[in-house]
Amino acid sequence: MKFEAARSSYLDQLRIERGLSSNSISSYTRDLAKFELFLQNSRKDFVNLTAQDLTDFEVSLKAMGLALSSINRTLSAVKGFYKYASVEFDISNPTLEIVSAKIARKLPKALSVDEVTNLIESAKREGDPISLRDFAMLELLYSSGGRVSEIVGVNTGDISVTQTDDGDVTVLKLRGKGSKERLVPLGKFAVAAIEDYFTRTRPALAAKNSKSEPALFLNARGKRLSRQSAWQIVLDAAVATGLEGKVSPHVFRHSYATHLLDGGADIRVVQELLGHSSVTTTQIYTLITIDKVRETYSTAHPRAK
């Protein structure tokens, strides 16, 4: 059997039966492409691969200068492929002895409230209608804690108003990993920024596209804003505020979670807002808060040292 056919069948299974998102499918495709290149260079048949061959593949990934996290992800993709192929095509699975290398846990970087505020405000440019879009996007990143892929994937119909006993609440629908949907409330600053962009800038952008585009954030051609363009908006804001090299779209998500916990939010609520399947993933943000407490204690208490 040809590797290309087995890979295609596996990707179809991920897409159709498991319902993985297009971003996840793209990641699996890239990782399996590395494996295919290894097979070609070593003139190996994937059907007869041994555990030693997989070790050689791991060595080749390290020789490419890939980060440990990237190597682990690639090996995980190959393990998933062979698990599927062993059942579907009745071939031996050489990956059973593969163990992912442990990665030292790094605390995510979170900005201060003032730094986040300055980043968002820097997007405002007098006389530039596009700046209203950029400003609204940065507000939404921080107000929702959404990943950049989720934010550029937002459609105009994903924002709604829900009536509660405490008044109306604006709610945003986000589509996360594995196409899982979640609802998050939006603050008044984000709501005001979105309304301003939607009424003053988006109509002119939408008019440049002959087709009706459901995306909330549009580019200069009236089409959905890309992840790359969203990244550039964040990087431009970082340069404008002297935070170059310290900021990425994901920093807004880290800051969102950290500031919620600092404000007394329950970790289970934060887990739901972030769309984490396990609270263990969310707990890493509590370590940031503990570090702040420890630092404050060591500098402020007269007998701490």
Automatic annotation (TrEMBL):
Catalytic residues in the record: R147, K177, H250, R253, H276, Y285 (o-(3'-phospho-dna)-tyrosine intermediate)
Protein name as annotated: Tyrosine recombinase XerC
Function: Site-specific tyrosine recombinase, which acts by catalyzing the cutting and rejoining of the recombining DNA molecules. The XerC-XerD complex is essential to convert dimers of the bacterial chromosome into monomers to permit their segregation at cell division. It also contributes to the segregational stability of plasmids.
Highest taxon of source: Bacteria
Keywords, comma-separated and alphabetical: Cell cycle, Cell division, Chromosome partition, Cytoplasm, DNA integration, DNA recombination, DNA-binding
One Pfam entry name: Phage_integrase
InterPro entries: CB, DNA_brk_join_enz, Integrase-like_cat_sf, Integrase_catalytic, Integrase_recombinase_N, Integrase_SAM-like_N, Tyrosine_recombinase_XerC/XerD, Tyrosine_recombinase_XerCD
Cellular localisation: Cytoplasm
NCBIfam families in the cross-refs: PRK00283.1 (NF001399)
Main location class: cytoplasm
Family stated for the protein in its record: Belongs to the 'phage' integrase family. XerC subfamily.
GO terms, molecular function: DNA binding; tyrosine-based site-specific recombinase activity
GO cellular component: cytoplasm
CDD domains per the UniProt record, alphabetical: INT_XerDC_C
The keyword DNA-binding is annotated on this UniProt entry: yes
Every Tyr recombinase domain range: 106-298
PANTHER family membership: PHAGE INTEGRASE-RELATED (PTHR30349), TYROSINE RECOMBINASE XERC (PTHR30349:SF81)
GO biological process, one term: DNA transposition
Subunit text: Forms a cyclic heterotetrameric complex composed of two molecules of XerC and two molecules of XerD.
Residue ranges of every copy of the Core-binding (CB) domain listed in the record: 1-86
UniProt KW Cell division keyword: yes
